[in-house]
Write a structure and sequence with these properties.
This protein is α+β, with helices and mostly antiparallel strands. Helix content is 45%, strand content 19%.
């Protein structure tokens, strides 16, 4: 299986300046390659691909030895592949009839990652194994100290350096990472995702939704008001932008931490976990509509969308899938339709069964339960039925 490992970098001031310049040069290469494609197609109707642009790298590096020539050719090829993937995604969306979104030029602050192949191409992990401190070697930057807080397993395939606010991280993408199966528990569970609680299991266990964005809302609002008063291009505005970015980064880290803890608790407790196959993008689509056809309950829908995104369902499900695969647990996704309206005891489905956000009482048999627990039991039943059908097929 493939996994990623992220570690904090501790560069010297000289190395941090070199990393910043490396990002800037790769950003300029990305933008120049994008302009090349646009001009070739706009003026001559010629489509330029990755192969042609990669072949030109040798001349570009030769013409600019103190700029593009000082960085790894492998990392520059990865930047060109990144642009090629952006165009491939653009054409895929056009073909599917969706909103296309033509690839854009990257401004300062919009290009924060550079990737290197980890095989003799300007980067190597644990470059000085005899040293007690782990270091990563990057061509043009040197041996950068890494705060390695856990063991790396598998074969390192790519090494990426990412800037977040004033901090630097290294991301290792590893293949052939061995699974770490947990002992069987003999217990199965369905989980219902929600806004009041992040997740509720069919046996009544609840994982709190910490609402990290809401908790930081006042500080974010103050920082954004301060940003709005700053003049564009000024040093004070750059500092204000950095403060807003730092607050959003803090919210993201806290949300990730909560998702990891909840997912780990689930995979340790249950052999089979069933969850709803949610279409989060559709669920959080704006209700504003158009001038001709305005949406309904726009303010309420905006608040619900914000709460759903603050809960981080997508992040949680992604982390849960990764941990379940590593632990040897079975994860099943089921259709979420009517799971919150159906009685888990008699199977009667009616809108009136759901009294309130937390209250459920069946109008047919009188069964009363917490609404999330009732939904989780329906999700579990649907998942086990799907599992049996797959085994019988």
């Amino acid at each position: 299986m493939r996994r990623s490992f992220t570690f904090l970098l501790r560069p010297t001031s000289k190395q941090a300046a070199a990393l910043t310049q490396c990002l800037e040069d790769h950003r300029q290469l990305y933008n120049a390659a994008l302009e090349h494609r646009r001009t070739a197609y706009g003026k001559a109707g010629v489509t330029i691909g990755y192969g042609e642009q990669s072949a030109e790298l040798k001349e570009i590096r030769k013409a600019d030895p103190g700029g593009q020539g000082r960085w790894s050719a492998g990392s520059q090829q990865q930047t060109l592949r990144r642009l090629d993937k952006a165009f491939a995604a653009f054409f895929r969306r056009v073909k599917a009839g969706r909103k296309a979104g033509y690839p854009r030029f990257k401004g300062r602050g919009r290009f924060d990652t550079v990737q290197w192949p980890a095989v003799k191409n300007g980067a190597s992990w644990d470059s000085q194994p005899s040293d007690r401190v782990t270091r990563v070697y990057l061509l043009g930057i040197g041996h950068v100290r890494v705060h390695r807080h856990r063991r790396v397993s598998g074969t390192v395939k790519t090494i990426s350096v990412k800037r977040e606010d004033a901090r630097w991280f290294v991301v290792l993408s590893c293949d052939e990472v061995p699974a770490e199966p947990l002992p069987a528990t003999g217990v199965v569970a369905g989980i219902d995702l929600g806004v009041a609680s992040l997740a509720t299991s069919s046996d009544g266990e609840r994982f709190d939704n910490q609402r990290h964005l809401a908790a930081c809302a006042d500080r974010l609002a103050a920082a954004q008001r301060d940003l709005a008063r700053k003049q564009r291009g000024s040093m004070r505005r750059r500092k204000a932008v950095a403060r807003v970015a730092a607050l959003h980064a803090m919210v993201r880290r806290r949300r990730l931490d909560g998702a990891h803890k909840a997912a780990l608790a689930l995979v340790r407790a249950y052999d089979v976990i069933v969850h709803e196959d949610l279409r989060i993008t559709g669920m959080t689509r704006s209700a504003s509509g158009t001038i001709e056809q305005p949406g309904r309950n726009v303010a309420q829908k905006a608040g619900l969308n914000r709460s759903i995104l603050d809960a981080g369902w997508g992040v949680f499900l992604t982390i849960l899938a990764d941990k379940a695969e590593s632990a040897g647990r079975e994860l099943i996704a089921v259709e979420p339709r009517n799971t919150s309206r159906t009685c888990s005891r008699c199977g009667h489905c009616a809108k009136d069964n759901r009294l309130t956000q937390a209250g459920f009482q069946c109008v047919a048999c009188g069964h009363a339960a917490h609404a999330d627990v009732n939904a989780a039991k329906n999700i579990l039943r649907a998942g086990l039925a799907l599992r049996e059908a797959a085994r019988a097929a």
